[in-house]
Amino acid sequence: MADRLAGRVGTLALALWAGFAVSAPAAAQSALERPPGLSGAWVGEPGVVHFHFIHRFSLLGDVNKVVNVPSFLLAAGLPARTLAGLVYASSSDVSPEVRPNEWELFGRWQPLGAEATSPLKLTLQAGYNTAVESVDGELAVGGRAGRASIFGVARALSRAYGEDGARFAVGAGALVRLGRWVAVGGDVASLTDRAEDERLAWSAGLLLGIPYSPHSLSLHATNVGSLSLQGASRGGDETRWGFEFTVPITLGRYFGGGQADVVKAAPPPPGPLAGDTVHVAIEGLEYAPARIEVSPGTTVVWTNRAPVAHTITADDGSWGSPSLDPEESWGYTFSRTGNYAFHCAPHPFMVGVVVVRDDSVEEGDEGSGRRR
Q1: CA–CA separation, 113 and 42 (whole Å)
Q2: Helix-strand-coil percent breakdown of the chain, rounded to 5?
Q3: Of the candidates 191, 221, 253, which is a domain's last residue?
Q4: Same domain, 12 and 122
Q5: 110 close to 41: Cβ distance less than 8 angstroms
Q6: Residues 224 and 285 in one domain
Q7: What is 229-288 written as a DSSP string?
Q8: What is the mean pLDDT of each run of 10 residues along the chain (372 residues)?
């Protein structure tokens, strides 16, 4: 029964990844902001579901047989800087018995470091590991200075590895940014009362952001088979090579309901093309708002607040912006009435419209654009 349930959940998770990977907004680049074996004191944005697909490979003995072990994290960002979800791992070694499937249900809260520019972040996590019937917890901290970031964790395991009695673990990690889309990182963890036959848990990898997309990728080596709190606190005898691919999914794009907001500019003052300026943000993979209503002579300025490049391109090709990197702006003055539909060239599902209304002005499509 448990195996069938695991298979169904795994299939659902893979379907979510395949179905939403193209349209997921850039809510988190978590694999690029933490070493492979630590959470990095990270929580998601409210209303965003996070799917992390993890796959690791090892060489079995002297027969040159490759064994692969898939696992995943599925979690949802909630209000008040919280994250709730589950970790699933196949072929887990946290239990002394033969239990191929491990589940950890968890909740995580971030009381410190809500702002993206915060130099220090802190999270508290509580979870229940079904494989060993253990209530576990973690305190995680992370700090960043320039290109370098450091991390630390302290863990409490109420029934560690199926034994009666609590155990504790500590860990640390670091990463260095080599560029906008590339970093290297590693981490190590240990049980505080580690026995001679128990190994340190470690991982090291190349951390990549997928350029101009919301996804990230970790290519790493480790001796850990599971990213649960218990699995990441004790290492195994073999080195495993693998990857982690992250997919954030904004539910508001599919269940937001209602019509887009409308921004109305005040009537322009006298004089040719002496209109007002309306500012529009590009957030994630959405124009905010997507529908703008203005008077002739108004300049609409789009500012890219997302971490990926976007454009504002007329559907008929008559006007449009260059590719706007994060925090770049571009303005276009709409001099005549009409409906001006536009989209993003690299993300054509992003659409919007500018409605220019003034009965005293003849309809047309003339205007001027400029980068700001």
Answers
A1: 9
A2: 10, 50, 40
A3: 253
A4: yes
A5: yes
A6: no
A7: TTGGGSB-SS-EEEEEEEEEEETHHHH--SPPPEEEPPPPPSSTT---EEEEEEETTEEE
A8: 44 37 44 91 87 88 77 94 95 76 95 79 96 96 92 97 93 94 96 94 95 85 93 92 90 56 42 66 90 92 89 91 90 92 88 83 48 53
For residues 24 and 144, state if they share a domain.
yes
| Residue that finishes a domain, picked among 237, 253, 269 | 253
Alpha carbon distance 192, 154 (integer Å): 10
Residue 13: in which H helix or E strand, if any? helix 2-20
**Pair 177, 204 in one domain:** yes
The tokens for 22 are: 């193209």
Do both 73 and 50 map to the same domain? yes
318 with 277, same domain: the answer is: yes
Query: Shortest CA distance to 344 belongs to which of 300, 295, 293, 284?
Result: 284
Q: How many Cα atoms occupy the beta-carbon half-sphere of 233 within 13 Å?
A: 23
DSSP string, 287-306: EESSEEEE-TTEEEEEEE-S
**Residue 368: predicted pLDDT:** 54
Compute and round to an integer the Cα radius of gyration of the chain: 25
Q: What is the identity of the amino acid at 119?
A: P
In which residue are the tokens 């706007």 written?
324
Question: Order of strands, edge to edge, in the sheet holding 367-371?
Answer: 286-288, 277-283, 298-304, 329-334, 367-371
> In this structure, are residues 28 and 46 in contact, taking their beta carbons and an 8 Å threshold?
no
Tell me which DSSP letter residue 33 carries.
S
The separation between the first and the last C-alpha atoms of the chain, rounded to the nearest angstrom, is 60
Q: How far is CA 136 from CA 2, 166, 168, in A?
A: 22, 9, 10
The structure tokens listed for 12 are 């659902």
**Same domain membership, residue 277 and residue 249:** no
How many Cα atoms sit within 13 Å of 6 on the Cβ side? 19
pLDDT at 211: 74
Q: Which residue has the tokens 């699995």?
A: 231
Residues 40, 44: Cα–Cα separation, whole Å: 12
Six token digits for residue 82: 């919280």
The count of other CB atoms within 10 Å of the CB of residue 60 is 10
Q: Are residues 163 and 299 in the same domain?
A: no
Count: domains in the chain: 2
Structure tokens at 166: 């609590």
Q: Cα separation of 223 and 43, whole Å?
A: 25
